[in-house]
Hints:
The chain is an alpha+beta fold. The chain has 2 domains: 57-254, Penicillin-binding protein 2a (Domain 2) (Alpha-Beta Complex); 258-294 and 319-626, 3-Layer(aba) Sandwich (Beta-lactamase), CATH 3.40.710.10. A hairpin with a 5-residue loop joins strand 8 (216-222) and strand 9 (228-231). Helix 13 crosses helix 16 (401-410) and helix 22 (598-617) packs across helix 23. The longest helix has 36 residues, at 4-39. The chain is elongated.
Amino acid sequence: xxxxxxxxxxxxxxxxxxxxxIILCFLLILARLWYLQIYQGxxxxxxxxxxxxxxxxxxxxxxxxxxxxxELLIHNIPRFDAxxxxxxxxxxxxxxxxxxxxxxxSFADITGVLKKNRSQARYRPVTIKKNISLKEVSIxxxxxSKMPGVRVQTFISREYRDANAGAHLxxxxxxxxxxxxxxxRSRDAYDYKLGxxxxxxxxxxxxxxxxxxxxxxxxxxxxxxxxxxxNIRSNVLFTGIENKQARPGHNIRLTVDxxxxxxxxxxxxxxxxxxxxxxxxxxxxxxxxxxxxxxxTNFSKGLTTEYWASLTEDDRNPLRDRTIQEHYAPxxxxxxxxxxxxxxxxxVTAEQELKCGGTYRLGRRIYHDWKRGGHGLTNVxxxxxRSVDVYFYQIATQLDIDILAKYAKMFGFGEKTGISLSRxxxxxxxxxxxxxxxxxxxxxxxxxxxxxxGQSFVLSTPLQLAMSYATIANNGTLYKPYLIKEIxxxxxxxxxxxxxxxxxxxxxxxxxxxxxxxxxYQVANNRRGTAYWYRGIGLEMAGxxxxxxxxxxxxxxxxxxxxxxxxxxxxxxxxxxxxxxxxPKVAVAVVVEHGCHGSSAAAPVVRDxxxxxxxxxMPDVHKKNSERQRRVYRRxxxxxxxxxxxxxxxxxxxxxEKEVIDEP
Length: 664
């Protein structure tokens, strides 16, 4: 049995232990309070304030894009979206019913949008309707107290001044999607978020980082319903919380001339095709148009399902940039380079004449000229001027395909040009090795006959055609095409400036170049030239027509009227020209799909684009050439009239006079 002393000692020991535990707990609490209130006091004070604040993202204005003459092509306009922040959504049914009447949407549609976004944090805004009207904006702002959680968010939207005219070149912006998010974050080292707009095509895509700028943010004090009470700029209660200004994107000045761009777009009209104009002495792109087109502003404002379906379901592929993404058989426009190869390899001389009938036989196969009766004796000038197929068939029997490929590649065929646009195709220039790898078969001579006239395996983009003829026009310098003159800030500071870049100088004699230049001049300026009646006034244009078959045809089909064929079977019409002939400045390539003839379908487009250039940049030369050509026309008309009168007199003289007998 314990005595009283023992019992007291036992209880005292326990009391001491309990007391120590209590003291320790108090010390821990005090330490924690010191940590929270003193050591981390400023940080948690900031957190407490942020519970009263909402961080408003300020979107950076995207950089603007100008023409070479500083005409605004793309600018920014405000766009208003109706959004809901689920965190502040009170009395859901009443609020959404009210909102549906304001926006003209059904209650089910609004709840459907919210359900699609329910996986994201409740403080993140959900866009209910994009691009709402100013009337809808004013109602939402006025009725804000009756619709807690509903707000109007302002975006900076892109507006493309000429709508469809520059769609493929300039591109468009749209919201980044879930699939693109990780890839673009990795590529650009930029923290993209769903809802961010990025360049998706053209210049907008290629120079997205330069154009996009850097977003800012601003803190606003809100009440329990998420309604804004005031902006937080300078207040002692909110020390440590700072707003960040948005940094606008850089601006871009292009090499493109807006007037020439519009001239090409309007000249193509409703035709399916493309046009490329280039400065022959620098490689600057002056115009770049693909038809059919689309309105890029619709992507920026918020693409509707109906508009997207109209583009994707159109079998003419309006989203495809035909200037660089499509490659075509260049047809007779390629004969110029066959002629260069033949002259350089001494297969023929410029003055040497070959007998050219309506057909050429190789083994058991007969190759037809476009003219049934043939052209008779033909030299290289006439072969280019009249586009004589049989002349080039005879050359083909002595011209190895690898030699032809060597000369074609000198002028940029078969390789990407390196233009600063995505998804460019390289075209194709076949060789013996290429065919062996492709099919395991040897090259056949008959295939060379088709290739020398720009058919069979030979493929080219309109941009390659423009650059190759620019190389002929400037006497042999191949430039890399470029679209950007300079990138500059809002303050006018030049960030980056671009200049001409020489890709190579062709290993071709001046004598050969002069010979083909003479032939190209005759195409448009000799009365027997294939483009004579489409050359325009005051241009002194040189060039080459081309008609590219889209499928193999029998001799009967070959000579049938193209316009009577089914649309998909009609030949492509191609023309490539440059001007002025004696001092070339601009080269233009045009392809009109299923246009039947290069002369009637494509040459008028080239004529209109070059005419725009001449009137704008060389008005004196254009006026002088126009006056001279009009004098020539008047003289030709006078000669024609005199010949007709002389013919009439000869006919009258050859008719015996009838004796007139007076009746009684």
